[in-house]
Amino acid sequence: MTAAPHLLVIRRRYLGDIVLLGSFLRNLRLHWPDARLTVLTEPAYSAVLALNPDVSAALALPRHTTDWPAFLGLLRRARFTHVFDLDNTQKTALLTRLTGAPHRHAFHLENVRRHFPRLYTHTTFVDSVAYSAQHITETYLAMLTTAGIPIASREVRLVPRPADLAAISALLGPQPKIDHPKSKIQKILLHPGSRSPYRVWPAENFAAVCDRLQDDLNVQIFLVGGPAERPLLDAIRAAAKTHLVVLDRPLPIGQFAALTSQFDLFLCHDSGPMHVAAAVGTPVVALVGAQNATVWGPVGPHHTVLQAAQPCAAACVAPDSCTPGDSYKNLCVRRLTVAEVFSAVRTALAGPR
Predict the structure, then answer these.
(1) 6-146: what fold?
(2) Which of 49, 64, 83, 129 could form a disulfide with 58 if both were Cys (CB 3.0 to 4.6 A apart)?
(3) Model-level pTM?
(4) b or e along 77-94 (b: 16 or more beta carbons within 10 Å of the residue's beta carbon)?
(5) Which CATH architecture is the domain 164-350 placed in?
């Protein structure tokens, strides 16, 4: 009898990238139902893997130098049969080889330096045109094709845990009783933050669209964000004329996923939280600046991406502040209007869940 394979998938960061491993992991599980499937990430992102039912274990890179000897010993003793390194940095290449796995896979992205290619047994080449023209999940899946693993699913799914759902129920409090199902008050969760301040829609615009949504559509809007986003949440609430509920308690990723699952719509920027919301099945309306929405958009059929035409050229709203070609230093998201966002949200709320 052949032993079940022991698989290691390496993707160090970020939150959205780890969530978007979902279809890659799903196909591994479908191909090897009995496999032990471990995912290696940086410590800040390992918790989200507990919400993926296809993952057997999450493994975090050491935080401190003194922890590396024990970690390397654990990696060697694990006896992995297959390693899929989706990063191919110098460190991950060496870790891949250290495992001693007989099957070691990596990417070769065109125009990106390869690190220690001889340490891998298989390489998947991805040219720059193909990379920019398809979703990142398709790039991930190309490695499985190289490995001879059939692509049977493109689903990206997270499943909130009962304990997290119970904690969120207590946070939201008792919901109003509605006598008729058609009278249900719809709820929107707004996450206005982003890793780059250039990608953030102005607070006064968010406030204006919240006012119009609550006045015209009779929805309830909740604001959520981390400690670093508290000034932005305060600015939106201060500018709004209608009442907004601010959820300012820091939430672990499990509780945040449970929270997003309780809303009719998630309004946000292109971000890790966007991918969490989409993965639990909540429709998303995402405001995008200059980043490639084809590569990094939400996965699923009921999401809306709003993006001003690119490149902006003469329509640039801040030519002295933007850096052409750098989506992290580009203010294109400010070209979106309150009317456009309101219309997109109204249409999304009327669509299927």
Answers:
(1) Rossmann fold (3.40.50)
(2) 49
(3) 0.94
(4) ebebbbbbbbbbeeebbe
(5) 3-Layer(aba) Sandwich (3.40)
